[in-house]
Amino acid sequence: MTGKTIYPALIDAYSEVEVAQHKSESAHWNKHVRPERDAGLDWKRSKSADQKLRQSGFALRLVAPNSGILKGKSAIVTTSDTPPANSIVRKAVANHVRLTAPRNAGREYPRSPMGAVALARQTCYDANWYRDAWRAYQKDPRTPRPETNVALEILSNAIQNNELFILDAPDEQYALRADRFAVEFDLIYPTAGFRSRIPKN
Predict the structure, then answer these.
(1) In this structure, are residues 165 and 158 in contact, taking their beta carbons and an 8 Å threshold?
(2) Residues 6+ apart with CB under 8 A from 60
(3) What are the DSSP E strand ranges found in the chain?
(4) How many other CB atoms are there within 10 angstroms of residue 22's CB atom?
């Protein structure tokens, strides 16, 4: 490491950023379900925000999509002023979920926490069905070929591969709700004061 300088720095453990929502014919029918979004692919640097973080001693930050219910994946990025492509330390760190109605939902579904939980639960059950349907088709091509849905495919893989899930919980009631949701679908998730199922690797 000749010529390099190593110094201790802080890590911003959670921040939300705008992530592009690409249109796809195989996307989920509800625009608030976008597990296929990846902050590591669509993240755009905010020079002013990164400069403030650097001045406060932060070298890395975790950035997650800032909207949706099944929001997509986060990434770890540096706060340096290098191009975004050279600043990504790790993509697809965790899958992010928010079990409450989107801000300014208006007349769109869901408009309540109950609706948000119902949509998230149904989508997870759909993802499990999607996995089983494709397995059955691959085993016996005479069975009906399932439709392609990128959202269900990515969510199914995330659950089956024991990827990390982070569930937003603004208060203790939401924390309990998030805990029940994660246990129902056997998700790997970190908790504070509840059951902890952090991945071993």
Answers:
(1) yes
(2) 9, 11, 12, 76, 77, 78, 79, 89
(3) 10-17, 58-65, 70-73, 75-78, 88-90, 95-98, 165-168
(4) 12
Q: How far apart are CA 51 and CA 67, in angstroms?
A: 24
Strand partners, 165: 95
**Fold of the 10-19+28-201 domain:** TIM Barrel (3.20.20)
Question: In tens digits, what is the pLDDT along the chain, a chain of 201 residues?
Answer: 788 878 789 999 999 988 887 777 788 999 999 999 999 887 888 888 899 999 999 999 999 999 899 999 999 999 988 887 888 999 999 999 999 987 776 778 998 989 999 999 999 999 999 999 999 999 998 988 999 999 999 999 999 999 999 998 888 888 889 999 999 999 988 764 444 444 444
Global pTM exceeds 0.90 = no
Domain boundaries, the chain: 10-19+28-201
